[in-house]
Structures are given as C-alpha cells and as structure tokens.
Design a protein that fits this description.
Elements lengths: L6 H6 L4 H11 L11 H14 L3 H13 L4 H15 L1 H23 L1
Length: about 110
C-alpha cells in the first residue's frame, strides 16, 4: 500500500479491508480509468445517480471529486436543479445543501 492511505482505506480499511481494496483496485483503479468516458463525465454520471437514488452518504465525496475532475459549481447546480424534476425535490434539495457546504468549506480553505 502507498504511503498515503486512500479514502476507502481511511473510511473502512480497518473494518472491511477487502471492500476497501476492491474500491481502490477495481472501482477507481479499473472502472474509473477506462477510456470510454472522461473522469469529468464519470463524475457527472456518478453524482447524478447518487442524487437520483438518494445515496447522500457517498454524495459529498463525489461532489468534491466532480469539482476536482473539472465540473464547475454552475454545472453541478444546473444538474441538481434538472434532477429535481426527474429524481425528486427532496433529493435535489439535499444535494444542493451538500454542494453549498462543500463550496463553503473549499472557500474557507482557500482563505487560509
């Protein structure tokens, strides 16, 4: 394992080490690295699926990753607004709240 633990290793490596390894090696090491979609597009698809399925526990991580992968605040906001009509108002409101908190934290980090 590398010097710095992955997010999966930090989150669940002690309780479910194989799941953490599969997350690192298969999901992010294989699926996310395939050439069929860019990381940006994969992030948009993933965020959309998490919002639609109301999987808020994973949404924050993937919203941050989406920003790192080149999606803008405006694009994510527009996707969330669009999803309100297809995935449900509560799902969109929850996602908007998470995005707002992430952006606020990122702004606070940039002020330091």
């Amino acid at each position: 394992m590398s010097e710095k633990e992955s997010a999966a290793q930090q989150a669940i490596g002690d309780i479910a080490p194989k799941l953490a390894d599969l997350t690192d090696q298969v999901l992010f090491g294989d699926v996310w690295e395939r050439e069929g979609l860019s990381p940006r597009d994969r992030s948009l698809v993933t965020v959309t699926a998490l919002i639609a399925l109301y999987r808020s526990d994973q949404l924050g991580f993937h919203l941050k990753l989406a920003l790192e992968n080149g999606l803008t605040k405006e694009e994510l906001s527009e996707a969330i607004t669009h999803l309100a009509f297809y995935a449900g108002w509560p799902n969109a409101m929850g996602a908007a709240g998470q995005l707002k908190a992430i952006l606020a934290a990122a702004g606070a980090d940039q002020d330091r």
